[in-house]
Amino acid sequence: MSRQHANPVLFTLRASAGVPLRSIEVTLEADIQEFVHAHPEALPIAEIDPAFVNPIAICRELGTPAGPIDNFMVTATGMPVLVECKLWRNPQARREVVGQVLDYAKELSRWTSADIAREAAKRGVPSLFDRIRSIAPDADEAAFHDALSGNLARGRCLLLIVGDGIRDGVEAIFEHLRSQALLHFSFGLVEIPMFELPDGGRLVVPRVLARTAIDVRRVIELPAGLKMDDGENTEASGPDPETVAFGDERQRFWEDFLARLKLDDPEQPIPRAPRQGHITFTMPAAGSSAWLTVYRIVAKGEVGMFLSYYKNSPAETAVRAVVENWSDGLSQRLGGTAFVHMGKDEKLTILEKKQFGDLSQATARSAALDWLTTRTNDFINVFRPAIRAAAAEPE
Description:
Blueprint: E1 9-10, E2 19-20, E3 22-24, H1 29-38, E4 56-62, E5 69-74, E6 80-86, H2 91-108, H3 113-122, H4 128-135, H5 141-154, E7 158-163, H6 170-179, E8 186-191, E9 194-196, E10 202-204, E11 207-212, H7 241-260, E12 278-282, E13 290-297, E14 302-309, H8 314-324, H9 330-333, E15 339-342, E16 348-355, H10 362-392
Parallel strand pairs: 6-7, 7-8
Antiparallel strand pairs: 1-2, 3-9, 4-5, 5-6, 8-11, 9-10, 12-13, 13-14, 14-16, 15-16
Helix pairs in contact: 7-10, 8-10
InterPro entries: tRNA_endonuc-like_dom_sf
Protein name: DUF4268 domain-containing protein
């Protein structure tokens, strides 16, 4: 049996009895679009992915080759939010909505901020940044456009499916999406039932039916000199037997790594063993926007780790605060062997690496795994509380 929510009852201080509120039936998807465009603050985004809070409504029906996006919004920090509005009584909506939002996201990954501005102008928004500045007057124009273009290219979007109410099968749609391993983005399934107040106003009770955190397959911006392909051509059009075998070997390496890993922090999420040359541990920053990348490079006989984060995300401020305190004790807590590295676009990280020789040899492989598991625990012990504390500081 599907979940059911009773209509709310309004109680006032002077009334002797409560007044049951009448549900407002939404008959047009355009009505949901209009409401979302006028009141983006009604969407429970903080419960889905805090990196996308306070979005600014840009336009409705933003044109793309995959079709018009019902509602397009973006934060002042350049984080795009795409909303698809559906009446769940429509069976076609249930079948097609997942594919539709994924198609939107795929199309926008080829776009830049200029493309958004061009299409928004066709929908009556003469200047994209003027719209942003009308809500966030302190926003920096160059930083906004750079961040939006970068987030589009990385597929860093929040995709919301917003409906009028729960119907049988809706949550199953979301579980099907989860099972397909297509989660390059953050997703949320939201209902916004509306009720009529005695004075003619509306009571809107948004509910998150299902959500996902951002997928762990992140776009890694590497410190200078590092290649994460680990000998594999990741752009190959199809797998060959050697590539498949190499993926199996990498997965065995990380399975052995995880089997040896002993973490002091009981709250640290443990990832699964990947088939890539690196594994990631999420740090406590909003929107899973910071993580520890642990890697190996077979050609160099090298293993190591470094802090990673998304540019223009809540984690960037936290990581920079950690770097500022690096010489005030954090470096010593890690034994003085890790170091601060500045990459392209002045992106900062803290890196440590060590070479062990031929990792296909049992002795070198075992020594590398011992060192790697110990230092991973050390990095998590130092940086997890430091990033949590820095992220909690008011801006």
